[in-house]
């Protein structure tokens, strides 16, 4: 009787797990395995047969200058994303965590850009950066800083920075929200106790806020890492990786190879590499964060 | 009363049954095309409606998508066994050629004979849809590269259409001295550079030698290639013939420079015709062919078909598809193609009685007078073409040299030739 009850309970659990698991297997696990298999083939995406080439696609990757440049751009994207939107998000969260008037409204305003489709963001920022009628050059001219005006989306290194800034605009609100949630979970008594012990604001921040925000920080860093390596929409909408690969990122290069140049096997190898890089970085940071 | 009601119900049921039977007996063919432009899409809808009226046993289910979307999904759809009946795809070896060589299309060689298309369709749209000696499609939207110009500005400055390269340079200098940007050119959209490149290649490399390179050789070893890159990518920007921020401007921005009279010349394709007619209201636009550069090489203008119709092997209704294509090649359709879709179909259509703007008439007449040159896109693979576009952007930015560009292009050309991905004689 007891066994039967247990079985009935377990089957109930499986009823809830199986649909999600099935979706995961069909849409995530199977494509991943299929991509891995494709990466060992040369295939143009149209023929029924594929030519097995072993690790040749991976060897090609090592000698592919543009892949390496793309990877470097992703690393720059990650570094600047950690430096700008994440720091800004933390700063804003700290300001908002004080009993600021209109805190909820400000949080919504900061979060708004994150709700806009990235393609739309790309179009908006392309207009902002437009060399002739864009608001950025317009404002610079208006305040007498003409020497700073430039064709933002046509000149290296500005073009990559311009894209990262547009990306940061959509991301800082999300970071603010996460940090704010983290800050609200910190017991205010800890700050009171620190104040009694004579700790200043900086000391409170370093010794209470930072350690107690560790979980949120880990989440933000992992999220930023993944986001920085899989960034595509905004790049594609604004520059398509150009001019002359100066904003090429791994995903745009992958797309060009697999879907435009019909080198599906090579594109699959790039995506497996991307997966491996994200996994390694995430696991490395997780183990570091746990050790700390 | 009751009898009356039963009678009405019976008639209703009878009509519904008739409707069901008629729609059930009609064959539905799915057509994927790329006519998404505001003037083209309604014209194609009209063509389809006319076809359905003339053939009540065939219904058309039309799916229109951009060329980019088509590139993304078509291969996968065909390979997955999607029951597509007619598709309108790009005609290059990396598109229609790829599908044909993968065995996903029906060989139309015999159909051309059966329906008399061999005589009806011009040679060019037939040739570019030919791979490995078989015809796989019908090229449509005949286009060529031309230089649109602002006739009013030319008249005001006493300028004539240039007959030589030297005269063109003189015009550019004159325009520059009057504060104009000679050419409305923009290179942010990476593909825009390929068109002027194609113009120069045809003006700098003799026909037989260019044929040899495009169809036989595994190397671009002609000095004309380097010169073609130098003129447009180095000399023109350095001389100030483009806007100073052209690298950050997109294709439409380049058009805007022309429409707003800042740039009196725009070198692009005749596909811009409809757009020019709609946007240019303040001056009279006209066009001329880019003039001769070398005395021993006559003017040859790169010609292309926007895309081409083909019939996937997976279709269950090949005969209905051929019937549809035959209708698209009819006189009735020809008038709609020209007058409403504002494009040139691949067969002769009398312009008499058609309401056409002067510029449109000029462009269509020129099309049949010019010596057609090679449009590089339809001879290269997407990989080579993308690299060319990107390398030209590199030259504009001073990050690539002409020699380095040629070496990189040759390496990819050789690889693609070895894999049999390029066209051959």
Task: Please explain how this structure is put together.
- The complex is a heterodimer of chains A (292) and B (425).
- Chain A is built from 13 helices and two strands.
- In chain A, a hairpin with an 8-residue loop joins strand 1 and strand 2.
- Helix content of chain A is 74%, strand content 1%.
- In chain A, helix 2 (56-63) packs across helix 13.
- Chain A starts with a helix and ends with a helix.
- Chain A has a single domain, classed as MetI-like (MetI-like fold, Orthogonal Bundle).
- By secondary structure, chain B is of the alpha/beta class.
- In chain B, strands 1, 2, 3, 6, 7, 8, 9 and 10 form an eight-stranded mixed β-sheet that branches. In chain B, strands 4-5 form a two-stranded antiparallel ribbon.
- The longest helix of chain B is centred in the first third of the chain and has 24 residues, at 2-25.
- The N and C termini of chain B lie far apart (80 Å).
- The mean pLDDT of chain B is 90.
- Chains A and B meet through helix 12 of A and helix 3, helix 4 and helix 18 of B.
């Amino acid at each position: 009787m007891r066994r039967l009850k247990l079985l009935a309970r377990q089957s109930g659990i499986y009823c809830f797990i199986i649909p999600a698991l099935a979706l995961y297997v069909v849409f995530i696990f199977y494509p991943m395995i299929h991509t891995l298999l494709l990466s060992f083939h040369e295939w143009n995406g149209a023929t029924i047969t594929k030519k097995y080439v072993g690790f040749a696609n991976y060897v090609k990757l090592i000698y592919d200058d543009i892949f390496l440049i793309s990877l470097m751009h992703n690393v720059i994207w990650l570094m600047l994303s950690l430096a700008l939107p994440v720091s800004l998000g933390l700063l804003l969260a700290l300001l908002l965590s004080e009993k600021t008037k209109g805190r909820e409204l400000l949080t919504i305003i900061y979060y708004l850009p994150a709700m806009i489709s990235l393609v739309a963001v790309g179009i908006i920022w392309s207009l902002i950066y437009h060399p002739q009628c864009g608001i950025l050059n317009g404002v610079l001219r208006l305040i007498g800083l003409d020497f700073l005006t430039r064709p933002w989306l046509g000149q290296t290194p500005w073009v990559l920075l311009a894209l990262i800034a547009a990306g940061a605009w959509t991301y800082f609100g999300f970071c603010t929200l996460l940090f704010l949630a983290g800050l609200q979970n910190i017991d205010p008594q800890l700050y009171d106790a620190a104040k009694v012990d004579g700790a200043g604001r900086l000391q409170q921040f370093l010794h209470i806020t930072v350690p107690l925000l560790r979980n949120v920080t880990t989440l933000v860093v992992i999220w930023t890492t993944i986001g920085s390596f899989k960034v595509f929409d905004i790049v594609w909408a604004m520059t398509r990786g150009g001019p002359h690969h100066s904003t090429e990122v791994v995903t745009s290069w992958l797309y060009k190879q697999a879907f435009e140049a019909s080198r599906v096997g090579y594109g699959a190898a790039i995506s497996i590499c991307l997966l491996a890089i994200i996994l390694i970085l995430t696991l490395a940071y997780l183990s570091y964060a746990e050790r700390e | 009363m009751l009898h009356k009601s039963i009678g009405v119900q019976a008639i209703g049921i009878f009509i519904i049954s008739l409707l069901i039977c008629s729609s059930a007996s009609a064959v539905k063919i799915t057509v994927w095309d790329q006519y998404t432009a505001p003037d083209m899409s309604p014209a194609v809808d009209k063509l389809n409606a006319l076809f359905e009226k003339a053939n009540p046993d065939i219904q058309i289910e039309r799916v229109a998508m951009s060329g980019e979307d088509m590139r993304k999904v078509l291969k996968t759809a065909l390979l997955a066994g999607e029951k597509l009946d007619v598709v309108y795809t790009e005609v290059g070896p990396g598109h229609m050629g790829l599908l044909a060589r993968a065995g996903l299309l029906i060989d139309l060689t015999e159909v051309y004979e059966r329906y008399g298309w061999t005589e009806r369709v011009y040679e060019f749209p037939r040739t570019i849809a030919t791979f490995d000696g078989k015809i796989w499609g019908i090229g449509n939207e005949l286009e060529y590269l031309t230089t649109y110009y602002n006739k009013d500005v030319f008249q005001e400055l006493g300028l004539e259409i240039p007959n030589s390269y030297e005269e063109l340079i003189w015009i550019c200098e004159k325009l520059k001295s009057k504060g104009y940007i000679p050419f409305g050119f923009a290179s942010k959209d990476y593909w825009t550079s390929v068109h002027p490149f194609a113009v120069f290649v045809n003006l700098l490399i003799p026909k037989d030698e260019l044929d040899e390179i495009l169809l036989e050789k595994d190397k671009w070893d002609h000095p004309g290639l380097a010169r073609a890159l130098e003129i447009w990518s180095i000399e023109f920007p350095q001389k100030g013939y483009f806007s100073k921020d052209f690298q950050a401007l997109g294709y439409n921005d380049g058009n805007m420079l022309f429409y707003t009279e800042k740039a009196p010349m725009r070198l692009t394709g005749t596909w811009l015709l409809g757009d020019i007619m709609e946007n240019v209201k303040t001056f009279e636009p006209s066009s001329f062919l880019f003039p001769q550069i070398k005395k021993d090489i006559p003017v040859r203008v790169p010609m292309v078909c926007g895309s081409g119709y083909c019939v996937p092997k997976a279709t269950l209704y090949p005969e209905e598809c051929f019937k549809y294509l035959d209708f698209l090649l009819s006189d009735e359709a020809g008038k709609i193609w020209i007058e409403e879709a504002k494009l040139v179909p691949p067969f002769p259509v009398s312009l008499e009685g058609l309401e056409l703007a002067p510029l449109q008439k000029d462009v269509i007449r020129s099309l049949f007078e010019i010596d057609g040159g090679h449009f590089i896109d339809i001879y290269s693979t997407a990989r080579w073409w993308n690299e060319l576009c990107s390398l030209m952007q590199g030259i504009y930015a001073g990050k690539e040299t002409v020699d380095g560009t040629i070496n990189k292009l040759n390496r990819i050309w050789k690889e693609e030739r070895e894999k049999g991905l390029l066209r051959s004689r």
